[in-house]
Amino acid sequence: MIIRELLQTLRRGWAIVAVVLIATAGAAAFLMSTSGVYTTRTVVAFTLPDGTDLTDDGSAEPGIVTFAATVASEVDDNVMRPRYADADARAYGAGVRRGVFVGVPDVGGQWTVVHQRAVITVEVVGPTYQWVKEQQASTIARVIAAADSQQDAIGIAESARLLYTVEALSEEIEHVVPSRSSQIMAVAALGVAGAMVAVFAAAWWDARHKRYQFTAAGSRRRAEGVR
């Protein structure tokens, strides 16, 4: 009985069901045709000019770490970014498809921040290789310009200035493409969600239509009673 009533409801609301299913099919086609994203995480290391505490991943001097964090905040326009439990989590893994993120890596969790090295990461995610390349170059230039500007403001002599090193291997741009199995799973989930939305939309429209008919019938009866 329930299945028969459901089928009747879907038949009466066929137009809404058709719209929802067409939209779901379009979204599924987009998911299957996506070519992925391009991404890079470039590292700019800050070190002392005399080589003290010189490492491949930036100085551990607290003052230099703080300086790097200040520069990163300025370049990133002091925007509060979402924090993840894993500091190595990549933006594209969190669903970002276009964006530029500048920050200092930390070893803290989701609720704490612990910076150990004076390193700024420039993470870029975009739809094309060329866009990511342009954003990478312009953002690195902004990092260096901001660092120079801050050292100028402090009045640090040329011989005592911090050094900035862009790690060559980190400049590589990757092409991340979803696997076919993940695409199929996403389409399946989308299909289930689309079917549920279609059923609920049809039921809502049917209930609204019946309520309208009931109200209209009551109005007619009252009008006839007046006459």
Distance between the termini: 41 Å
The quaternary state of the protein chains shown equals single chain
The SSE order reads HHEHEEHEEH
Indicate the percent of residues in helices: 40-55%
Mean pLDDT: 77
Largest β sheet strand count, sense and barrel closure: 5 strands, antiparallel
Indicate the structural class: alpha+beta
Which value, in Å, is the CA radius of gyration?
Answer: 29 Å
Summary tags:
single chain; five-stranded antiparallel β-sheet; 5 strands; 227 residues; elongated; alpha+beta
Protein described:
The protein is of the alpha+beta class. The chain is built from five helices and five strands, in the order H-H-E-H-E-E-H-E-E-H. The protein has helices at 2-12, 14-33, 62-75, 129-154, 180-226, and strands at residues 37-47, 99-103, 119-126, 163-166, 174-176. Helix 3 crosses helix 4 (129-154). The chain is elongated and about 85 Å long. The chain crosses the membrane at residues 12-32, 184-205. This is Polysaccharide chain length determinant N-terminal domain-containing protein. Keywords: Membrane, Transmembrane, Transmembrane helix.
Summarize it:
Keywords: Membrane, Transmembrane, Transmembrane helix. Helices cover 52% and strands 14% of the residues.
Write the SSE topology.
Elements: H1 2-12, H2 14-33, E1 37-47, H3 62-75, E2 99-103, E3 119-126, H4 129-154, E4 163-166, E5 174-176, H5 180-226
Helix pairs in contact: 1-5, 2-5, 3-4
